[in-house]
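Milestone 3.1: sequence recovery, worked example.
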């Protein structure tokens, strides 16, 4: 069985390796002529690290990124609302990593070329259309046509595969939040491995260190994101991962955000690159799989970057598709099973993130104690916090029980 994957992003490359390992003939077709380490920071949750580790990639991840020790939510005064140990620090068998997206993509690209063979990952091949005829899919890349038994659209938020099934969908959806992202060389804060989410839903500051090399020099390469609500009538800007951002558009709003353990305006001002990007997603689809064609990663379920799920869920998709295609010999049924398994939980994350997801705790605290608090219990009682966190972890499959079940560990 020959499987064609459109897109050599994080999802497509992981799927390629999982499918190759399961014994399938896989070819990846990537639209760009050259993969460059684009983007800024990203998190790989423990459940996704499990999959990359099984492909032998944990040493490369550990050598490049930071093993995330803690996730900390704080109000805009820097007071801690919730601190959660992550990965191995939470007693899980796998770490969580914070890493540069481009470096992660390069690790996957190099590994996929080693595993599949260099000629199996073809660059400069943009999918332009396809037809299903009998048990074959004819996939067009400009003037060339490739025949496949299965086609996987892993071609990101502007997926051409998705667009052929849903031609009237239009551009991604925006609800008015703009994000400025940057990386800054700074001093390590809170022990050098903590991801911070501070503020509230309409004005947030997120940061985490992403580079092992910097940490070894006693520095921190801090990836940061400022989320700012622009109002209901602002025009949605076309998203472009490389659009430069301007300090004047957002820095003034963060004046006074000095947490003691981190001076936010200083971090922002010292950035060596800043990008502006709208927070966009798409409505959940009724179906991903049509015959011998399916979708994966952002092509299937682009979501707001809340709760650090985008890259991790695309990795989990790749494993799921390989498992289902290996489990039976009818690929159409396998793709339906993959969809039944993955579509409902991804639709729930997309919808939860639109309702702020786990960030809801920030808004509760901001609403009840805008000037800060001396006793968190009086503002957000532990049982209420526990419920928010527990629900979201279940939803995102970050809870221990789901993680162990997915890993096939019985206890
Ligand atoms: C350049 C870039 C920078 C990003 N930076 C960040 C970041 O800093 N932080 C963050 O959280 N997320 C970032 N993302 C998004 C993040 O990578 C995804 O949300 C997540 O990793 C899911 O990955 P994916 O493989 O589904 O999609 P993507 O990572 O978007 O990969 C899709 C791939 O498909 C290729 N492609 C697109 N159309 C076609 C076509 N018609 N035919 C063939 N190939 C095609 C694209 O070139 C790309 O390589 C970025 C994505 C891109 C493309």
């Amino acid at each position: 069985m020959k499987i064609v994957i459109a897109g050599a992003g994080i999802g497509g490359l992981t799927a390629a390796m999982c499918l190759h390992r399961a014994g399938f003939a896989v070819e990846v077709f990537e639209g760009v002529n050259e993969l460059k380490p684009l983007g800024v920071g990203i998190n790989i949750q423990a459940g996704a690290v499990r999959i990359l580790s099984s492909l032998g990639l944990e040493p490369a991840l550990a050598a490049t990124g930071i093993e995330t020790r803690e996730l900390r939510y704080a109000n805009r005064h820097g007071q801690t609302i919730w601190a959660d140990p992550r990965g191995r620090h939470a007693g899980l068998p796998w770490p969580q990593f914070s890493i540069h997206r481009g470096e992660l993509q390069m690790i996957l690209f190099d590994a996929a070329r080693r595993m599949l063979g260099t000629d199996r990952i073809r660059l400069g091949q943009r999918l332009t259309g396809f037809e299903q005829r009998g048990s074959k899919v004819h996939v067009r890349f400009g003037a060339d046509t490739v025949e496949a038994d299965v086609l996987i659209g892993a071609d990101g938020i502007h997926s051409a595969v998705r667009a052929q099934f849903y031609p009237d969908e239009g551009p991604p959806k925006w609800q008015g939040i703009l994000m400025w992202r940057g990386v800054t060389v700074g001093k390590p804060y809170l022990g050098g491995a903590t991801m911070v989410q501070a503020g509230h839903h309409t004005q947030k500051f997120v940061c985490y260190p992403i580079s092992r090399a910097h940490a070894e020099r006693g520095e921190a390469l801090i990836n940061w994101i400022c989320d700012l609500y622009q109002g209901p009538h602002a025009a949605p800007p076309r998203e472009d991962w490389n659009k430069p951002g301007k300090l004047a558009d957002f820095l003034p709003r963060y004046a006074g955000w000095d947490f003691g353990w981190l001076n936010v305006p200083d971090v922002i001002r010292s950035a060596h690159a800043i990008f502006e990007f709208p927070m966009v997603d798409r409505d959940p689809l009724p179906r991903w799989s049509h015959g011998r064609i399916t979708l994966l990663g952002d092509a299937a379920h682009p979501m707001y970057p809340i709760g650090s799920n985008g890259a991790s869920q695309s990795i989990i998709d790749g494993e799921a598709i390989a498992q289902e295609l290996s489990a039976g010999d009818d690929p159409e049924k396998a793709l339906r099973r993959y969809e039944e398994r993955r579509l409902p939980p991804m639709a729930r994350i997309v919808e939860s993130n639109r309702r702020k997801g786990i960030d809801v705790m920030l808004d509760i605290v901001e609403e009840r104690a805008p000037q800060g608090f001396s006793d968190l219990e009086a503002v957000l009682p532990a049982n209420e916090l526990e419920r928010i966190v527990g629900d979201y972890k279940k939803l995102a499959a970050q809870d221990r029980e789901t993680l162990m079940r997915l890993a096939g560990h019985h206890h």
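The chain has a mean pLDDT of 94. Residues 6-12, 29-32, 38-40, 42, 101, 126-127, 154-156, 160, 241, 297-299, 305, 310-311, 314 surround flavin-adenine dinucleotide (CB under 6 Å).
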